[in-house]
Hints:
Elements: H1 2-17, H2 25-46, H3 54-86, H4 88-106, H5 121-127, H6 130-156, H7 171-182, H8 193-218, H9 223-244, H10 246-275, H11 281-305, H12 310-336, E1 358-359, E2 370-371
Antiparallel strand pairs: 1-2
Helix pairs in contact: 1-2, 1-4, 2-11, 3-4, 3-8, 3-10, 6-9, 6-10, 6-11, 6-12, 8-10, 9-10, 9-12
Amino acid sequence: MVITINALRVVFAILMVGNLDSLLLFPIAFAMLVLQKGYAIAKAAIVPTTVKSHSELVEKNSRLALLSGVAGLVGAAPAALLQFLGGASLSVALAAITFAVATVVATRLDRVAVASEPAGADEQRELRRGGIRLAASATGMLRAIMGFFTFLVAFAYRGGTDDIDLSGSGSAIGAHLHEELLGVDLGASGASALKLGAVVGFTVLGSLAGALLAPKLRERIPEERLLLGALTVIAGTCFLGVWSGGLSGAMLVAFAVGLGVSSGKLAFDSIVQRDAPDANYGRTFAKFETQFQLFWVAGALIPVLFKIPARFGFFVLVAGAAGSGLSYLVGSRAADQPPVIRPPVAQPLERPDDPTLVRSAQPPRGDTTIVAAPPHQATNTDPTLVNPPGSDDVNGDGTVF
């Protein structure tokens, strides 16, 4: 899958070079996004097959997250330089070369079956635990926040000019879609590409910071607190972004989103490895990564379908992160509560032959319960029974208490 995905990326990047100013750019970019999501799922399945222990897997995931942040910064510099010198076609050509190199390198991966057998009962039971499900929901919200923020700032700071060729058949529909999706008139000049680059750069810096801090924080605080902290940081920072607004607010929010998503994912991976020791991690992480990518798409669709100002979008992020954090906190506390043990149901009194004291035939939970013989079987001839003072027959019917 990794080899095929990277090879297809080369093909679509080459097609993109020749269609940067036409409507074909949109389906090509869509295909590139689909391939990107597929690569993330395949990588999540492969990584567990390259390690020998759970602790090594945590370390490798942290290193990969750190490497991704560094590669994002390193790759952005030559791409920006080429775009400055020769336009977008040169930077896309560089991407095609990069994907070609990745295809060759991927051929050196060991071809190991990720999951040769279906999931067993122990694996299914462990993955259905409340702690893992709560952590998956919180991590899914983090991915939805990332998808929402990505397209929010892409439309707010898209850069460039509106020089897309809308001539020919369907030009009216294309023009209408262009105006609705980008939220501007076709004649208007776009915001500076430097603004979008700055916001994206701060997102990468936040991801890099999360990859550096999360492993160290994990040694001192539980993973649940680390995941809750990621949601809290995003909610608080987005609130500051609503208050400040502008490019500075967007860069601040970008850093917080990158930091929260990166550290939250590492916390989730650690929770799964801790609470599901019998699970096949290749299959498990691929399944969860698929769900997270769908969350990303759901979040990204909101600013695509609706015209949302950046500042209002930050307020939406505050509500999403704070609501998810509160839900995770309440759910985690409920999951930590000990199970309620109901008192045993009282057994009915039996009628044994012994007229004195008898033992219950089936005492609850293994306890020995002493019960008195029914009154109509007790007599005053037994020296162990004591009559009430002043009367041998309280009820007048021959019974003795």
